[in-house]
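In this notation, each integer encodes one residue's backbone shape. One such record reads:

___
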Amino acid sequence: MILPFEPYNPAWKNQFNTLKEELETLLQPIKASVEHIGSTSVEGLAAKPLIDILIGLENEADLDKVPALLQGKNYVYYEKYNEDMPYRRFFVALTDQPEKLGVPAHIGPDDEIPLRLHDHSLRIAHIHTIPQRSGHWLRHIAFREYLRTHPAVKNEYQALKEKLVQQEWEDGNDYNEGKDAFLKEYEKKAVTWYHNQ
């Protein structure tokens, strides 16, 4: 599959703000912070036109309350990924309610992911829910701020993404693996830099 890849679009910020407002309303029963992360959060960086959202929970015990709070909206809960990443709950925001798009609202541990859910034109955002005090929260926020303030690193990342997006990928996870070495190197640098700010 060829992944969609677009020049930076200022509309991404507006899309995030709309989703943030909805998520904050839905998550009112728990203490949560909603942040824009990933390439769409860095001005001038080309990206897949999917908003990456990080929800930070003040209380780790609230992780399993989130699926019920988002139920009935335009979100698909990928419980399937909980075993590999027990500290995270992952959701995809769709253009409409899952049942109207002919996809399940919940992908269980033993479920196959329907081929239709790999259609990126149906997706608006990827939502990662994690404890706010975790190292995973820190690395995402630090890396975003590092890219925003280090133009040379942002340009290097841009070049890598442009090269990778030309290749044929089975799915988005394979594309992400192509960025893995770069991300590990610069996330580590970003966390050290962030601590020193």
Remarks:
- The first strand starts at residue 32 and ends at 37.
- The CA atoms of residues 26 and 69 lie 6 Å apart.
- The chain has one domain: 11-195.
